[in-house]
Amino acid sequence: MPAGCAALPERRARGPPHAEAREIVFDFLQGYDLLGAFWVTVQLTLLSAAGSLVWGTVLAAMRVGPVPLMRGFANAYVNIVRNIPLTVVILFTSLGLFQTLSINLGGQRFETINFRLAVLGLVAYTAAFVCEAIRSGINTVPVGQAEAARALGLNFTQALTLVVLPQAFRSVVGPLTNVLIALTKNTTVAAAIGVAEAALLMKEMIENEAQLLLISAIFAFGFVCLTLPTGLILGWVGKKAAVKR
Amino acid sequence: MKLRKVTAASAVVLALALSATACGSNDKKDEGSSGGGGKIKVGIKFDQPGLGQKTPQGYTGFDIDVAKYVAKKLGYDEGQIEWKESKSGDRETMLQRGDVDFIAATYSINPEREKKVDFAGPYLLAHQDVLIRADDDSIKSPADLNSKKLCSVTGSTSAQNVRDKLAPKADLQNYPTYSACLGGLQNKQIDALTTDDSILAGYASQEQFKGKFKLGGFKMTNENYGIGVKKGSDLKDKINKALEEMVADGSWKKAVEANFGPANYKYEPAPKIGDIKS
Amino acid sequence: MSSVLYDAQGPRAKRRNVLYTVVFLLAVVAIGWWMFRTLSDKGQLDWEKWKPFFSGSEAWTTYILPGLWNTLIAAVLSVVIALPLGAVFGIARLSDHAWIRVPAGVIVEFFRAIPVLILMIFGVALFSQYTSVNSDDRPLYAVVTGLVLYNASVLAEIVRAGILALPKGQAEAAQAIGLRKTQTMTSILLPQAVTAMLPAIVSQLVVIVKDTALGGALLTFPDLLAAVGPMSSYYGANTIASFTIVALIFVLLNFALTSFASWLERRLRRSKRSTGAVLAAEDEEINPAAVGGGFGSGASA
Lengths: 245, 278, 301
Hints:
Chain A has helices at about 1-10, 15-30, 35-65, 70-80, 85-100, 110-140, 145-150, 155-170, 175-185, 200-210, 210-240. By secondary structure, chain A is mainly α. Chain A has a single domain (about 1-5, about 15-240), classed as MetI-like (MetI-like fold, Orthogonal Bundle), CATH 1.10.3720. Chain A starts with a helix and ends with a helix. Chains A and C meet through helix 4, helix 5, helix 6, helix 7 and helix 8 of A and helix 1, helix 4, helix 5, helix 8 and helix 10 of C.
């Protein structure tokens, strides 16, 4: 800290505060891989979003399906996963799956292994929330739709995939957007197993540099840039997509 | 009916608020006691068997014994010591802010740290080394680590050394604690755990791991463990004197044997005060 | 609803379902067996590793319970501080004056857009550089700061949604009998909204408890999760065992809270004299009322 305090007045002498801040930001961009870290965050988000959408839909299908065992499994899965901290899930992928069960997901170096493990953990966790959202969406589809589908002679899989789910998805864009935003923010937890994403870089920068407020502002700004447009765009999409009843 | 529910709600909120104020007063008490008055605050590690380990019976390890001896010479008996956990990344800040009076926590003296804090000692000379599986013959020199998977702890100098000098190409994973590396080492997902040999010996000698791990014996660096004090503190000279006495009256030898003996760790002889091996 | 999706099962469907059940069961059992075998091969299921938790209370009193205590303190402090803050901001967002409504909205949306971990990392540095809070309390302060900033803004949305979910007639009737805006809010809307929000608030507590673990894993906050470190190094690297026990405690604790929330919700829904507006006790991640208010998905309860 003393080093930082000594550096500050010297910098101040150079010009007006905003010019000085711009200079520091420029130094940061050179000294640290800011964009790279946020790119990892984005990758984590997109891959986990795709994965959890698939796995969450499967879980939701199991929960409304005719096989009692699958219903029970999906139920238990959702209830357990929702109540575990994400940090525990992510740490478990590294300590349990990787170290103990020797699952390295085809990665050779820690960088790849950790990244894939983090995606796996985020998918496992987020899918529980996707499942809940889709199930609530299924509940908004009028009973008549499913009854009509059955009257046409469609079986469960057909009724679900051709009639009910397409309508359900249109009504859950809003809740799924919230899941996606929460997921974007949750990717920071991957720092716990050393994935070089935004939060880990922020921690490193705060330890090495003195400009706490500026660094925090940069990272806050980065996340606002990621989450606010997502919310606005998908909110608009959701309104367009919703089935008017 | 509705009124009852609102009262119930406010009762919940009130209960929460009350418990919060209870905690609040608790905090204040803590602050009062740490303000001084017959206590000395010592920073140690909580999770390093042999050096500083929190156990159900209290704290044990070589660092603890040294700290107790030093504290006694400074005029504090065991009951007056307040132990605090000082993680590797926090040590300089804790001293600068006066959160602790001194730190004995596998704290190696190096020029970068000396800019921020003062060191008494050294009181032990250790070396960076690797812990590998007992049946692993592929690591014969530090250069062999380049193709291996290494594990260390976030913020430790060992991790930095590996990346900067010893084996720049090694694949390095950092965890919050050393014990998190051991499972992977045993299951061949990690090839080596690197840090000071004094720490590694403690892990290698644990009941569950007897015969499974060995030390590489590379002596890759010299780690001069010192006792960290605030910059410019007059404690430095007093602690140096205490450490000299500790070696002279045989307590040092006794502590080393008690803590490292079971681990079969070949410790270096007691270093001279101020003799920092680079 | 779910039963509407498929017909009453005939003999063929029943046979097919039995087949599915068997295949699924086999898959689950196979995975479970493989995990069990691997864990026991690696010695993770040895009694030695699990003994500390089941024989004697040492492990509990030395490591787990102090950690759990810290987790609970952080969670309770956060809720108690965040609740009034959230209420103030939630009501401010409903204000008729743009100069109150807009800044409140910006602040709430800002803190909801930022990960709690980022707020906590900021908190740690803030308290160590600019305050005299000592090192013992600093992680707690940082964790609570992060949780309060984030959850106050989430609770603000819950409060707002709770008030908006009340039938319009309530506010209109209040105006009709000549109450002022403040009076309408404090004596008509808020009391009803608080009741309706209770389940949502309790489930927000689950989110808070889960988030305290971030402080343990990344910020030296000595919480339940952080207890795994010294505990597993003392008991011979029983990391998996320690970890499982800690995870179980988290699940049980949160499960109790979740159950309480849905019980509360059912009870409030059932009572006939209620206005019918009860915010669901769903998690923040999917509850549009709790999170989506600003994004146009509407405050439907």
